[in-house]
Design brief:
This protein is α/β, with parallel strands linked by helices and 404 residues long. It is built from 15 helices and twelve strands. The strands form two sheets. Strands 3-2-1-4-5-6-7 form a seven-stranded parallel β-sheet, with helices on both faces. A five-stranded mixed β-sheet has the order 9-8-10-11-12, with helices on both faces. Helix 4 links the parallel strand 6 and strand 7. Helix 1 packs parallel to helix 2, helix 5 crosses helix 9 and helix 7 packs across helix 10. It is globular, with a radius of gyration of 23 Å. The two termini are 36 Å apart. 41% of the residues are buried.
Length: 404
């Protein structure tokens, strides 16, 4: 079966990009012919090419029609549908809020897939998709990429922030203070921090505690790390055998991050460290979240989409395209979902950095002598101001770099 997978970007190793990569490679191992399209190529596109899977940023360059379109993100999905008339499509939604994940409506989209229960609610309760046309396939791990680490030590020694948006100035400051209070060494890995490795499996095996969310959290659990679901948005807590199922049904995502991020909230979760519980979580994830059952399900979904005749209702297809373009037009003219969500993320990141800096300066100022605080002419006062400028400047430079 020739399968065209779309995604809004194949540049960075995160989220839906890695979902496409791992699924495409698994499909190829089974004898299918996957290919990938995204207007933005990069690290993940290179990974796919290394696996002998064709990748393009121009749909017009594809000389043979696929049998089915595996669509992710509405712009890229609708472009593929327009490029290949008569080809059925499956749409996969990865998020409840992101604008890019909004499900397009088109008569050739035969099935929808949600990666967690909350996303299913978006499809069925907000977007009018028929319940019988929605399958829930929880996120998976390619276990061959994440072999289990050696048993965890009784006392944690090393922790990792495994998040593409975390920096020293936002999440890192809180996590470093919490870890330091408990004698744990901390590292940060992710695009925003400027430290990225391609082999995440090898990286994770070197850490006892991992701060992560969503797919990254699941990969760390499969490795056998003690995982605290957290990121700059908030904290869900340590994953245990008791809460694993509930958190997975929400993809260890934003809806689980209900506790405010502070040094104390992270310290309390680190203090719950339990090697035995982490081992039970590891075994459950390796048993229930492996990639092969998900590939089985996709093969059935593709076959079902192909079994439903597409017909030749040109009027219905034109109406679907008109409706989509009208909706898209609204998004570009007002501070709609895309613009607002991007602005909100920028604001939240800056606010978190300011809160972290304020706490750092308050603690430093409490260490000054009364005279230095009152007179403001001691060497410590300019040092504080310089530290403030350096911290904000460092955050802004990293943030701007991450937005390129």
């Amino acid at each position: 079966m020739r399968i065209l997978l779309t995604n809004n970007t194949l540049a960075w190793r995160s989220g839906s990009e890695l979902y496409v990569r791992d699924l495409a490679i698994a499909l190829k191992r089974r004898g299918h012919e996957p290919m990938a399209f995204s207007p933005q190529l990069g690290d993940v596109a290179d990974d796919l090419r290394d696996a002998a899977i064709p990748v393009t940023n121009d749909l017009r360059a594809i000389g043979e029609h696929p049998d089915v379109i595996h669509g992710q993100h509405h712009l890229e999905t609708m472009a593929a549908i327009a490029r290949f008339p008569g080809i059925p499509a499956v749409y996969v939604c990865h998020g409840f809020l992101p604008w890019q994940e909004a499900p397009p409506r088109h008569p050739r989209i035969r099935r929808h897939v949600a990666v967690d229960d909350l996303v299913r609610e978006r499809l069925v309760l907000e977007c009018g998709v028929a319940p019988e046309d929605v399958s829930v396939l929880y996120n998976f791990v390619d276990l061959s990429r994440f072999p289990p680490r050696e048993p965890l030590p009784d006392v944690p020694r090393r922790a990792l922030v495994f998040n593409g948006h975390a920096t020293e100035e936002n999440f890192g400051l809180f996590a470093r203070e919490a870890c330091s209070a408990l004698g744990v060494e901390l590292s940060i890995n992710g695009y925003a921090s400027g430290r990225v490795v391609s082999d995440s499996g090898s990286l994770l095996r070197g850490y006892d505690i991992v701060f992560a969310r969503a797919r990254s959290a699941l990969e760390a659990m499969a490795t056998g790390c003690a995982v605290i679901v957290a990121d700059p948005q908030g904290v869900a807590g340590l994953v245990t055998p008791e809460n694993l199922d509930s958190l997975r049904r929400r993809n260890f995502g934003a809806s689980t991050l209900t506790t405010t991020l502070t040094t104390e909230s992270l310290r309390l979760e680190i203090a719950k460290y339990d090697p035995s519980g982490a081992a039970q979580v590891r075994d459950a994830v390796r048993r229930d979240a492996a990639i092969d059952p998900v590939v089985d399900a996709y093969e059935e979904i593709y076959a079902d989409a192909l079994s439903r005749p597409c017909g030749n209702d040109d009027a219905a297809e034109r109406d679907a395209v008109v409706g989509y373009l009208q909706w898209l037009s609204v998004q570009t003219k007002v501070p709609g979902l895309y613009g607002w969500s991007e602005l909100r993320k920028s604001h939240d990141a800056l606010a978190l950095a300011v809160d972290a800096l304020r706490g750092k300066l308050d603690r430093a100022e409490r260490g000054l002598t009364p005279r230095a605080r009152d007179e403001g002419d001691a060497p410590a006062k300019p040092a504080l101001e310089a530290a403030s400028a350096e911290t904000v400047g460092g955050f802004l430079s990293r943030w701007l770099k991450s937005r390129r």
